[in-house]
Amino acid sequence: MNRLSIGDRTMMLVFYVSIGLFSILCVLPMWIALMASFTNELELIRSGYGLWVRSFDLTAYKLIFTGTGSVYRAYGVTVLTTIAGVVLTVFLTSSFAYPLSVKSLKYRNRLSFFCYITMVFNGGLVPTYILTTRFLHLQDTLWVLIIPAALNGFNVFLMKNYFATLPEALAESAKIDGASEIYIYFKIILPLSMPILATIALFAAIGYWNEWFRVLLFINDKELFTLQFLIMRLQQQAEFLNSSLSASARAALGGQTIPTIGIRVATAMVSIGPIILLYPFLQKYFIKGLTIGAVKG
């Protein structure tokens, strides 16, 4: 068994210490925000952010969950659109990217160019709005939050490059045994492509979970508000009320202020949780899928 030299052990120690410090720097902002969400608003204004709770206060969370039905309903809508969007995104992206990776496909370069054009140009906000509302009639439905973001040119090329790294002999031997292209796609290609599928799923999940702009444009039904849009409205309302209160109104409230800072960090904690919990399960696939899919052109 080879023993590490003093120089090697010193370098390993430096690496571990550096990685540990970097990890602390990554976690520190989230920890500070978490502590701020449990801190009294006046204490935050007076002393700023800190590593520990100086004056414990749950007012921000109470304001967020006042009328809990709307918050839980928004959570449900967000979870539903995220799950459905991720499934649809992975299926459409893989089913479009796989034919582009097959060299025998006729016009595959033209199809790739067509996909590339969508990454450079788009129809614009007004044509998109007219198409969605007057022709597709998707306004005030969950489909308007799922379908438009289901296919992305960048994801298609990322997955196409990954498929291109798989040995062609796998598909050729399957064809000799009488397998169809659909059988090869579902039974051979997809099972070997878990890293890139997990990578695209993570990208899609983050996008769907943070969706609020399409809600602003196309959703008027409060039952279909997503969590991010509801949180944004709550922050705007809190800031408006806080800026509109006169001195006499503040005195009548006992000098209390609406915790706009506390609401901001508390809503961040409420909304970021599921994504943080999702990442560790996909981490082992994420780096491999991203690097392999990005290297080969």
TrEMBL record:
Recorded topology in the membrane: Multi-pass membrane protein
Transmembrane segments: 12-34, 74-99, 111-130, 142-163, 184-209, 261-282
One GO CC annotation: plasma membrane
Cellular localization per UniProt: Cell membrane
InterPro entries: MetI-like, MetI-like_sf
Keywords: Cell membrane, Membrane, Sugar transport, Transmembrane, Transmembrane helix, Transport
UniProt domain ABC transmembrane type-1: residue ranges: 75-282
Any GO BP annotation: transmembrane transport
Family: Belongs to the binding-protein-dependent transport system permease family.
Protein name: Multiple sugar transport system permease protein/putative aldouronate transport system permease protein
